[in-house]
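Kindly inspect what follows.
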Amino acid sequence: MFTPPAGTWTAGQTVLLAALSFTSLVTVLGDAYTTMIGLQHGFVEGNPVMKFLFAKVGQSLSAFLSAVAVLGVGAVIAAHNLGAGYAFLAGVSVVEGIQVIRNFLKLKASKISLK
């Protein structure tokens, strides 16, 4: 896919990039939220990187750093190759979305509310 120089994207390309960025942000924060609920009820974090960050900087800052990292990496990739930026953000959205669903189902099976 041809990627025009930064700043010359069409309105449609910009809207798609914004939508994928928003979707990535929502799914990353959804994963963080459902994970925090689970941890409050005795579940164990399965991701060793996040487990380390939780211990060092806390859950909220870890969630913030994850969101900033995903959006920052997505922006850098998109600036160099818009199609690759789309693919990265879509991939993050899918993987994180699956994790949100898995977390939700585990919480539901344990009769834990998301409130």
Notes: Residues 20-109 form one domain. The two ends are 44 Å apart (CA to CA). The CA atoms of residues 75 and 85 lie 7 Å apart. The chain has a mean pLDDT of 92.
